[in-house]
Design goal:
This protein has helices at about 45-60, 80-90, 120-130, 135-145, 170, 180-190, 205-210, 220-225, 250-255, 260-290, 305-320, 325-335; strands spanning about 15, 20, 30-35, 65-70, 95, 145-160, 175-180, 195, 215, 235-250, 295-300. By secondary structure, it is an alpha/beta fold. It has one domain: Bacterial extracellular solute-binding protein, family 7 (D-Maltodextrin-Binding Protein, domain 2), CATH 3.40.190. Helix 1 (about 45-60) packs antiparallel against helix 10 (about 260-290), helix 6 (about 180-190) runs antiparallel to helix 11 and helix 11 (about 305-320) packs antiparallel against helix 12 (about 325-335). The longest helix has about 35 residues, at about 260-290. The model is unreliable at about 1-25 (pLDDT under 50).
Length: about 325
C-alpha cells in the first residue's frame, strides 16, 4: 500500500476542504474533485485529465458518487497557480503542470526534462514507464505536498530559426531565447549559441525585430504562437522531450477513502501513458501539416551527437549540484 494512504474514521460528517466536498455516509455520499487546465477540451493536457477522470471512475468500486469539475481556458490561472493551489489544498485538486513550476519547492523537479537528458523518444518512454524517477516523486511530495501520479508530455522541441542551420558551425553564436531556468542557459551556451532569457509572450516580436535569431519549441507551440511567421526554418535537433506530470494535491488525497486513493493513483499512471502517446504522435502530424501547407520548412540537424557530447558534462554537473548524481546515472542506464 502506498505510504501516503491514511484511513478515514468517525461517524457521518461533512468535509469541505481542499477543493472537494464529501457528504456524510448517512446520506448518498458524494465526492467532488476539481481539475484545472490552461487550455480547451482539444488540448492534450485536458484530454489526459479527462482520461484520468474516466479511469478513476472505472477503477473505483466504492459506494461514493464521484463528481469531477474541470476549469478550462485558464479560468483558475496558469500552471504555476495550480501548483500553488495544490500545495495549499485549495481550489485545484489535480492538474498537468510543467516541472519548472514545482522547482520553488523541490530543486529535483528541474531534472525531469532538461535538454539532451533523453537519448530519444524510446529512452524517454522507458524512463517514464519505470520507477527510476521515484526519488523526484518522493522529494516533490515531501516538499510541495503534491503527488506526481503519472507523466504526460511528449512534445519534441526543435530550433526555430530565421535561417537554415544544420550543424554546430551554423548555430555558433546564434542569439536564442531560452527559458528562465539556469540549466537552460548553461546548456545552450555549451551548444555554442548565445542564450537570452526572454518572456514567452515576447518571443515572436524578439525574432521579428532582430533581438534574437532563434527560439526553441515543440510543434504545438510553434503552431499556437505562429512562430513560423518569423522563424520559418525548423532545425530538427530534437534536443528536448517534454515531461508534464499529472499532479494531485496531497492534502486532498489523504482525506479520501483508501480505495479511492488507490484508484486515483492507478488511473493517474495510466492516464499519463495515454497522454504521452497522443502528444508524441500528434506532434509529428502537426509539424507535417504546417510544412505541407507551406508555413515552415524543416531541415535536418546533422550533428546531433555533438549536441549530446556538449550537454553531457553540463548535465552531470547540474545533477551533482542538486544532489542527484546517482539519478543521472540511473536514467542513462535505462536501455
Amino acid at each position: 500500500m502506498h505510504p501516503i494512504f491514511s484511513k478515514l474514521t468517525g461517524s457521518a460528517m461533512v468535509v469541505a476542504l481542499a477543493g472537494f466536498t464529501m457528504v456524510s455516509a448517512a446520506q448518498a455520499e458524494k465526492i467532488t474533485l476539481h481539475g484545472a487546465s490552461q487550455f480547451d477540451e482539444k488540448h492534450a493536457f485536458t484530454r489526459l485529465m479527462r482520461k484520468f477522470e474516466q479511469l478513476t471512475r472505472l477503477y473505483y468500486s466504492g459506494d461514493d458518487e464521484l463528481e469531477f469539475i474541470m476549469h478550462l481556458n485558464s479560468e483558475l490561472g496558469l500552471e504555476k497557480d495550480y501548483v500553488a493551489y495544490m500545495n495549499q489544498g485549495l481550489s485545484v485538486d489535480y492538474a498537468v503542470a510543467s516541472p519548472s513550476h514545482m522547482s520553488t519547492f523541490s530543486k529535483l523537479a528541474t531534472v525531469l526534462d532538461p535538454p539532451m537528458l533523453y537519448r530519444d523518444a524510446g529512452h524517454w518512454s522507458k524512463v517514464l514507464s519505470g520507477d527510476v524517477l521515484q526519488p523526484v516523486v518522493d522529494d516533490i511530495y515531501k516538499r510541495a505536498d503534491i503527488l506526481l501520479l503519472g507523466y504526460g508530455g511528449g512534445g519534441i522541441r526543435h530550433l526555430i530559426v530565421n535561417k537554415p542551420v544544420t550543424n554546430m558551425a551554423e548555430i555558433k553564436n546564434v542569439p536564442i531565447r531560452v527559458m528562465g531556468a539556469p540549466i537552460q542557459t548553461k546548456l545552450f551556451d555549451a551548444f555554442g549559441m548565445s542564450p537570452n532569457v526572454i518572456a514567452y509572450s515576447e518571443v515572436y516580436n524578439a525574432i521579428q525585430t532582430g533581438v534574437i535569431d532563434a527560439a526553441e519549441n515543440e510543434a504545438a507551440g510553434i503552431r499556437q504562437m505562429k512562430f513560423y511567421e518569423v522563424g520559418p526554418n525548423i532545425s530538427l535537433t530534437a534536443h528536448s522531450i517534454t515531461v508534464r506530470p499529472l499532479a494531485f494535491s496531497g492534502k486532498t488525497l489523504r482525506r479520501l477513502p483508501e480505495d479511492l486513493q488507490a484508484a486515483i493513483i492507478q488511473a493517474g499512471k495510466d492516464a499519463g501513458t495515454y497522454g504521452r502517446v497522443i502528444e508524441l504522435t500528434e506532434g509529428q502530424g502537426i509539424m507535417k501539416e504546417m510544412e505541407d501547407s507551406g508555413k515552415l520548412k524543416t531541415v535536418m540537424f546533422t550533428e546531433r551527437e555533438k549536441l549530446i557530447a556538449a550537454a553531457t558534462p553540463v548535465l552531470k554537473d547540474y545533477f551533482k549540484e542538486v544532489g542527484a548524481a546517482d539519478l543521472y546515472d540511473a536514467i542513462q542506464a535505462v536501455k
